[in-house]
Amino acid sequence: xxxxxxxxxxxxxxxxxxxxxxxxxxxxxxxxxxxxxxxxxxxxxxxxxxxxxxxxxxxxxxxxxxxxxxxxxxxxxxxxxxxxxxxxxxxxxxxxxxxxxxxxxxxxxxxxxxxxxxxxxxxxxxxxxxxxxxxxxxxxxxxxxxxxxxxxxxxxxxxxxxxxxxxxxxxxxxxxxxxxxxxxxxxxxxxxxxxxxxxxxxxxxxxxxxxxxxxxxxxxxxxxxxxxxxxxxxxxxxxxxxxxxxxxxxxxxxxxxxxxxxxxxxxxxxxxxxxxxxxxxxxxxxxxxxxxxxxxxxxxxxxxxxxxxxxxxxxxxxxxxxxxxxxxxxxxxxxxxxxxxxxxxxxxxxxxxxxxxxxxxxxxxxxxxxxxxxxxxxxxxxxxxxxxxxxxxxxxxxxxxxxxxxxxxxxxxxxxxxxxxxxxxxxxxxxxxxxxxxxxxxxxxxxxxxxxxxxxxxx
Length: 459
Ligand code: TYD
Ligand code: MG
What we know:
Radius of gyration: 26 Å
Structural class: alpha/beta
Number of strands: 21
Number of domains: 3
Largest sheet: 9 strands, mixed
Bound molecules: thymidine-5'-diphosphate, magnesium ion
Strand content: 25-35%
């Protein structure tokens, strides 16, 4: 039973793990002296962390049969940036909390400023800047030629002051940049600590839910790529999106990580230009910006990103090794997958690469986590090893199993259609992915076994 009395817990400042009593080292993440006392629930402000009987004042007061719930109660509206809408599952949902993560300099503030300046033309919007001065933000907006006549801007880090401003302005969109600098005067711990982040984010998301405001929380990412205090935030927010830099510094990927209103693993692509972030509507075209001189070790794969196909080039370099333990380096691909494919290639393809250094890379800084890239990577390895150039118009996809079998992947037809759209005329795909209707101008070979795929490469 929830008690109305405020309780305490012990929370690790590094990873957010909870303990019933204090301990010197966090058993979860191993950090020393990171466990601090944390007050759960705060009856005075409505018990942010633990919804107690007295504190809970949410809108869902009565239960209803599922079928009676009006779906129009979830009206989405566009953010004005279609790549952002898509990653969010089709637009902004009133009352939702969205966490925007990314490295410093990834462009989070730029993206949100662009979005808000445009949205402010239609609905009240409030931008809380805790890191930059109002002048810096205004200068950027001016330089990017954004409409600045409607957006309310406030430089503030106290959650109580944000609350007061929000209650006065009643924004439909609220951006807090960033959650790590926001603090509550009622807590003694330092801004950015888990208890501060948790308490402030809980208050802000509660405010968003109650007022139907769209809340964007900006969160910086730590060195290992996770958001600081991720565990404490992940259950409160509805969507988590990550703005990633790529190896090619011009491009930024916006990736959905959690979404209560749509599919995850959606990918939005932006280019950072002198005029801010620009949407890239046809990402295949930029990642396929290939060298004019065809080279061995290069293969093009059609991967599936969220709800659309994306054509990317995979490069491999296989070269005599000078060291006892030859190197296996995978950039943008999974290292274990590369090791596995090398073993399959040895066992089922008869290719011995044990004394070779192997490097594999996805061009353009894209990260490919899909198994459909297996076959293309394998073909790139063979192409480099034999120093034979693959046809320029060839696209390859398919998963490779441990027995050397080529397994089908979802959405084969759409992948082939995307390749055809970009001028590809040949394809090697799993036999089960052979198109039901022939694709005009494209010669598609279906393969079941590694041997057949290697034979298909020969011509
Ligand atoms: P910013 O939005 O401040 O990043 P974040 O809020 O994620 O820390 O983006 C800053 C970077 O973007 C900075 O390195 C400069 C670059 N940039 C441009 O290249 N062009 C532009 O028009 C803008 C506004 C920023
Ligand atoms: Mg910023």
